[in-house]
Each structure stands twice: as structure tokens, then as C-alpha cells.
Specification:
8-stranded mixed sheet, alpha/beta, about 35% helix, globular, binds flavin-adenine dinucleotide, 2 domains
Length: about 400
């Protein structure tokens, strides 16, 4: 049986790290979540939730908290940003829910993170949440692992999960494959009060305006009181982190020729925050001894499938199941976990790059995209998404 006294160390208290702590606690396994920041929290932006992650919410016991805070959008729409015409849409109503057994929704990142944090805090006897703890290296011992922190202190645990995101330091110990790949795409994000948004743009959908080398995504948040905006364009800029200020002039140079409706949304924002989008090629080795990786640390992906956080929570549930099944043998559990997860997450990583090319098509590619997608029915869309939305 799983060692129930020595905690597992989880590096990173983002969506993946908290999900892992909660999934382990639900199976009676204690953990210490080591977060480098001075508090647990998430940035101000939205996140889309596929039906596959709703199954994880059930397993984690947080479905009610999520359903209270999520917005259940009616459809996903793809528009041609230049012509201003619809390309295709995926209806998310009753037929979608019947097909996948779960809904599709959007949520504020802080609300998803809060739901996980509340559930972790409610299990304080099994989960220790520790801030201002930056893990710089990891060492194996005879019967566990040691995490070394920025101030030189050493923390022992039964095993270690690196849920420390795109620039993971635990990954350097496990895979040693250098820095992430800079995609050449940059995302600017902003959240607007809905009352500022023109009435004709306040539709209840996740909308993507696809243009040459650019796209814009928007959807409502928090009961329709906010609108989440993400504008993506090609750029060689590179800044680490998720909170650098964006340059409005640069953004407008890319988007100035699009349809006036999406352009009117961009014009409303005075302050953008920037993400330089990075990913990695899929790998199958996520574990080294009693240390493994989870979420973006294991399989960073471009966000074009809107699945990075969903995959992190699938990882968390799978990992806890494998730890219980391996009866406390963390090395075996982590091998079984990576074997079950790497092809599914690798497929999302690679398909997300491909989707980026489709969104950003220009000239003949753009015409072909519009022609090919125009013929899709809801059923063909559902069939195409089944490998992902039906779950692992
Ligand atoms: C523009 C954009 C849109 C997206 N949209 C969606 C979407 O719609 N749906 C979806 O499912 N996903 C989406 N994603 C992906 C999603 O945001 C990520 O996949 C998800 O946040 C990964 O969670 P994580 O916990 O693995 O990593 P992170 O969220 O990066 O968390 C890592 C945590 O580890 C901490 N940390 C880092 N290093 C250390 C250290 N050395 N020691 C201690 N702590 C450390 C960090 O402070 C942080 O709290 C999007 C991403 C982007 C960029």
C-alpha cells in the first residue's frame, strides 16, 4: 500500500500541482505543495473546459464549485477575420452533452484555481500548502527524494512531482532537454467589463476570428459580466513569464485590416499582458526514479486546442490512481503513469501546432481552409473531437 505517512513533494501550486495534491489526498496520500510565489493564485484570464476535464472535476469532487462559476457557452464559432464571415461552428447544446456525457464551458482562471485551492485547504490534514519555496534541484536518496530550495534548505519526501510549468526546473533533472521551443507566436490577453462591449458582440460563444498569421479569441466570463480576449500574432519576441506588458502599436499593426467588429474589441483595451508562446516536442520519459513530471512541465503545448490545463488535471487523476495501484512503489507508479499519458498528451501537443497553421492560413491556404470546414456538420465535428473529448 502507498506510504501514508511520508508526504509526496509537489513542486508548483498551479492548476496541475493543486490537482495532483487533491487527487492524492482523495486516496489518503499526504503531500507538500511547494510554490515559489508569495501566494497561491492565477492570472486574470479565461480558460476553456472541454468535456474530458468535467469527468476529472467529478473525480476530484469539485464539480459543484466549477458549475457555479463557469459560463456554459452555446457554441464554438470560427469566423474569417478578414471577410467577417462564419467559417464553421460546433454547437454545444443538448446534442453535444448527449454525445460526450458532459458539457463544454469557460471559466476565469482564478475561479478554477480557487475551486482547487478550497478543496485542498479542506483537506489540510493531508495537504500542506507552502509558499515562497522555490525548488532549484532534486536529489534521489535510498528511500525517497530531496528537493533543494533557493535558500539552500533541503526538504525530504517519499517522491516528487514536478508541476512547475513551462520553465520547469524539475524537468532539467528528469529529461535534461534544454529550454522550451519558442513558437514564434505571441499572445496578448485582456479582460474587459462586458458593459463596455458593443451589444452586438455580446454573444454567448467561444469565438475565434482566424486571419493571416493572426487570430483573436473572445468569450464571456463570470456570469457574462466580463469578456476574455486573447489576440495572437507571429513575432520573434521572447520574454519569460506570463505577465509582461504588451505593446498596443505592435498589436494594431497586425490586426488593422480585420473586420470592424473584432477590431472594435481590440480598440477597447488600453492595457494588454503578453505571453510568448512556447511548447516542446513530445517525450515518453517523464520520470526518473521517484520523481515525475505533470502538466506543462511534462508536455507544454500551444493553447490552440484549449487543453493544457485539462490535460494537467487528467494527469493528476491518472497519477494518483497509479500510485494507489502500485501499492506505494512510486518508481513503478510513475512508469505506469507516463506510459498511460504520453501518447495522448503528445497528440494534443502536435495537433495544437497543426491547428495554429489552420487558424493562421493565408491566401490559397485560407480559401481551402474555409472551403473544407464549411461542409462540416455538428456530427462530423463531434466525431473529429471524439478522441479528445471522450477522455483517456
Ligand atoms: C494564451 C493561453 C491560453 C490558454 N487557454 C487554455 C484553455 O482554454 N484551456 C486549457 O485547458 N488550457 C489553456 N492554456 C494552458 C494552461 O494555461 C496551462 O496548460 C496550465 O496553466 C498548466 O498548468 P500547470 O500547473 O502545469 O503549470 P503552471 O500553471 O505554469 O503552474 C506552475 C506553477 O509552478 C510554480 N513554479 C514554477 N517554478 C517553480 C519552482 N522552481 N519552485 C516552486 N514553484 C515553481 C509557478 O509559480 C506556478 O504556480 C492556455 C495557455 C495559454 C498561454
Amino acid at each position: 500500500m502507498a506510504q501514508k505517512t511520508v508526504p509526496v513533494l509537489i513542486v508548483g501550486g498551479g492548476i496541475g500541482g493543486l490537482g495532483a495534491a487533491l487527487a492524492l489526498a482523495l486516496q489518503g496520500i499526504p503531500s507538500r505543495v511547494l510554490e515559489q510565489a508569495s501566494g497561491f493564485g492565477e492570472i486574470g484570464a479565461g480558460i476553456q473546459l472541454g468535456p474530458n476535464v468535467f469527468r476529472m472535476f467529478h473525480r476530484l469532487g469539485i464539480s459543484d464549485a466549477i458549475e457555479k462559476r463557469a459560463v456554459f457557452v452555446d457554441k464554438i464559432i470560427m469566423m474569417d477575420a478578414v471577410a467577417g464571415t462564419p467559417i464553421t461552428e460546433v454547437p454545444l447544446g443538448k446534442p453535444f452533452r448527449e454525445r460526450f456525457g458532459q458539457p463544454y464551458a469557460v471559466i476565469h482562471r482564478a475561479d478554477l484555481h480557487r475551486a482547487l485551492l478550497d478543496a485542498c485547504e479542506a483537506r489540510g490534514e493531508l495537504i500542506s500548502l507552502e509558499t515562497k519555496t522555490s525548488v532549484t534541484s532534486v536529489r534521489d536518496t535510498d528511500d525517497g527524494v530531496v528537493a533543494v530550495t533557493g535558500d539552500g534548505s533541503e526538504i525530504s519526501g517519499a517522491a516528487l512531482i514536478g508541476a512547475d510549468g513551462l520553465w520547469s526546473s524539475v524537468r532539467a533533472y528528469v529529461a535534461d532537454d534544454g529550454p522550451p521551443r519558442v513558437s514564434g507566436h505571441v499572445a496578448y490577453r485582456a479582460v474587459l467589463p462586458m458593459e463596455q462591449v458593443p451589444k452586438e458582440m455580446r454573444w454567448n460563444a467561444a469565438t475565434l476570428w482566424a486571419g493571416p498569421r493572426i487570430h483573436l479569441v473572445h468569450y464571456p466570463l463570470r456570469n457574462g459580466e466580463l469578456m476574455n480576449l486573447v489576440a495572437v500574432f507571429h513575432s520573434d519576441r521572447y520574454v519569460e513569464g506570463w505577465n509582461a506588458p504588451g505593446e498596443v502599436d505592435e498589436l494594431l499593426r497586425w490586426f488593422k485590416d480585420i473586420d470592424p467588429r473584432p477590431l472594435s474589441l481590440i480598440d477597447l483595451v488600453s492595457e494588454w499582458r503578453m505571453w510568448v508562446l512556447c511548447d516542446r516536442d513530445p517525450i515518453s520519459k517523464w520520470s526518473r526514479g521517484r520523481t515525475t513530471l505533470l502538466g506543462d512541465a511534462a508536455h507544454p503545448m500551444l493553447q490552440y486546442f484549449a487543453q493544457g490545463a485539462c490535460m494537467a488535471l487528467e494527469d493528476a487523476v491518472c497519477l494518483a490512481d497509479k500510485v494507489t495501484a502500485a501499492d506505494g512503489d512510486y518508481g513503478e507508479a510513475f512508469k505506469a503513469y507516463q506510459a498511460e499519458r504520453y501518447l495522448r498528451t503528445g497528440r494534443v501537443q502536435l495537433m495544437a501546432r497543426f491547428l495554429g497553421d489552420i487558424y493562421h492560413a493565408k491566401d490559397v491556404e485560407r480559401e481551402l481552409r474555409n472551403q473544407m470546414l464549411a461542409g462540416r456538420t455538428p456530427e462530423t465535428s463531434y466525431q473529429g473531437l471524439a478522441w479528445l473529448y471522450d477522455g483517456p
